[in-house]
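Morning, I've got a small favour to ask if you have a moment. I owe you a coffee for this, so here goes:
>
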Amino acid sequence: MPERGATIEIGDLSHRMTTTEARQQTRILVQAAVQVCEDKKGEDTRILELDPIDSGLSDFFLVTSASNDRQSVAIADEIEHKLKKEFGVFPNSVEGRQKGEWILLDYVDFVVHVFLAERRAFYDIERLRKSARPVSPAEFDAELKTALAEKTAAVRKKAATKAKAKPAAAKVAPAPKKAVKKAPAKSAKKTAAKKAVKKIPAKKAATKK
């Protein structure tokens, strides 16, 4: 484990995702991990949203406390299992599982810290990340729901715009029909000419009489 006050270097920077959509997916994963902490009776669970200066480090720290090492291992194991089973996501690295005093699950875009209560007070990573924005699980959930609602509204608006544009495009350049209608006129002239030719023998016959 790092010494107290040491800088914690987390994550493979070559795999960091910074797009809005990727960040939203990260929020969904963090929320799933928070749910595990609550189900497993983790205490004082908090989320630290790191500022842009630390964006190369990670987007979020999830911190929770356990009353004993067996509980901390159970929380960490269940988080790993849930994210693997439901999202197909694996941690980049796992540290501290053997002792269970401070278990670190590094998912690159977010990092889970499961502490024994006394170890958490000793290392105090919340204090080390003063520039981070602390968010309660309830606040984090509300923000995630708002972001998803905005995304859904944007998708529906885009689909509606496309639907309106399609009928307008269908009216452009109808197939020409006038040229087809002129053809019967030509055939009518030919028919009249043929009739005139047929009448000539009749006149000649009358002259002979």
The first helix runs from residue 20 to 39. The mean pLDDT is 77.
